[in-house]
Predict the structure.
Amino acid sequence: MKKVCIIGLGLIGGSLAIELRTNMMASTIYGVDSNPEHANTAMQLQLADHISTLDEGITESDLIILATPVDVSCRLLPYILDRITPIQTVTDVGSIKGDLLDIAEKHPMRSRYVAA
């Protein structure tokens, strides 16, 4: 089981957290959300084990999942790729991939990004 960071604890990120827990696919879930209310709700619903900063979530996790609007994911992806190690993986749940793929293609850690 992996340590997973979910960035964006809304409907999609929260649903993903539930499935990770239900299917025992994550040993620890780090939740990152810019909205304190969403973060608090996620903890109350036990969607995350820890609410963390973006940097802590990146550092502590094996798998980093972007569950934010695509424009936000486009801003975050290069930042995340700059900070991961060669054994970490980054993915997203966005519906539009073109911009994300363009960003990843130009990054030295592009092989660690898996469009989902």
Observations:
- The longest strand covers residues 26-32.
- The chain has a mean pLDDT of 95.
- Residues 5 and 30 are 5 Å apart (CA to CA).
- The chain is about 45% helix and 20% strand.
